């Protein structure tokens, strides 16, 4: 497997980073995940823009222009066997003696890898998936795609332990997002979505779902929704670059509406699949 590290493409086993890297010591860096279908990086410009915004928020200078990133991503894609991939971009503040304050004169560590793209199974798409809920214990800058993911890791594991696919997060009883995904609800034919504020990651799939809704004249209400609204919704959806769009049919063991993927989900899934072609 070929990866990219600090200016070189090399085999994974030769890619090595110092234990003093601030990514390792402090989780001091940002990342991005880009799905690749048939060697085409999906919504690449949007992902690169969000990556640039994450780096700016961390006061890290972007090592490359979007055009340079795009060329590197294309090279990495071309060097893999699989045509469908998940590209991981990662920049940390670099290697320096341990000190919370930013080091002077240190160059960032730049890493990229490709993994096989694992998309939902046919059963998950047709039957929907189960989720649990938890209170959102993360910090106040969830809009940054930071590599420090301890809360997300713990929250996702709670879902796995419960035999569910994701943990839906509520901050003071208001829906934010999933541990590694965005969440939508449907009520009376209207798509309900949380706003892109500092309590959720602005999902690239989230934006696409809202674009597709607008194209097909489906009404959308952006707002703050209490857990009672979410639990009594007609439909619940989960979105991410790797989950695409899935229907959530149970939450904490209770069915959402009749416990089956809803009609608007089926339409949205069709629009999403057409868009991907
Ligand atoms: N996660 N919210 C969080 C906290 C996420 O980690 C993700 C993505 C999303 C969805 O964003 P997008 O539609 O751009 O993938 C929302 C990726 C897939 C991950 O960390 O593996």
Automatic annotation (TrEMBL):
For this protein, the record's Gene3D superfamilies field holds: 3.30.470.10, D-amino Acid Aminotransferase, subunit A, domain 2
Q: Name one GO cellular component term.
A: cytosol
Instruction: Specify whether Transferase is a keyword of the entry.
Output: yes
Q: Name one GO biological process term.
A: amino acid biosynthetic process
CDD domains in alphabetical order: D-AAT_like
Reported cofactor(s): pyridoxal 5'-phosphate
Q: Which residues form the signal peptide?
A: none
Task: Cite a single Pfam family from the UniProt record.
Answer: Aminotran_4
State the UniProt keywords alphabetically: Aminotransferase, Pyridoxal phosphate, Transferase
Domain of life assignment: Bacteria
One GO MF annotation is: transaminase activity
Family stated for the protein in its record: Belongs to the class-IV pyridoxal-phosphate-dependent aminotransferase family.
State what protein this is by name: D-amino acid aminotransferase
Q: Say which species the protein is native to.
A: Pseudomethylobacillus aquaticus
């Amino acid at each position: 497997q070929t990866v990219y590290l600090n200016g070189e493409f090399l085999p994974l086993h030769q890619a090595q980073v110092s234990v003093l890297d601030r990514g390792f010591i402090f989780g001091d860096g940002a990342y991005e995940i880009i799905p690749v279908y048939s060697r085409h990086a999906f919504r690449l410009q949007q992902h690169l823009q969000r990556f640039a915004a994450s780096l700016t928020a961390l006061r890290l200078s972007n090592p490359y222009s979007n055009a340079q990133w795009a060329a590197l991503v294309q090279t990495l894609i071309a060097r893999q066997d699989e045509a469908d991939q998940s590209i991981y971009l990662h920049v940390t503040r670099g290697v320096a003696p341990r000190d919370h304050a930013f080091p002077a004169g240190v160059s960032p560590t730049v890493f990229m890898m490709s993994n096989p793209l694992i998309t939902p199974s046919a059963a998950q798409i047709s039957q929907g998936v189960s989720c649990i809920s938890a209170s959102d214990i993360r910090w106040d800058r969830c809009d940054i795609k930071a590599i420090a993911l301890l809360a997300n890791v713990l929250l996702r594991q709670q879902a796995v332990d419960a035999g569910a696919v994701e943990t839906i997060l509520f901050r003071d009883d208001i829906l934010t997002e999933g541990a590694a995904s965005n969440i939508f609800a449907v009520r009376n034919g209207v798509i309900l979505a949380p706003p892109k504020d500092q309590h959720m990651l602005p999902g690239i799939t989230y934006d696409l779902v809202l674009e597709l809704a607008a194209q097909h004249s489906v009404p959308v209400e952006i707002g703050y929704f209490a857990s009672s609204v979410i639990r009594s919704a007609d439909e619940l959806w989960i979105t991410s670059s790797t989950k695409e769009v899935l229907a959530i049919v149970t939450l904490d063991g209770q069915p959402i509406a009749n416990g089956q993927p809803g009609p608007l989900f089926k339409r949205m899934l069709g629009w999403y699949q057409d868009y991907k072609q």
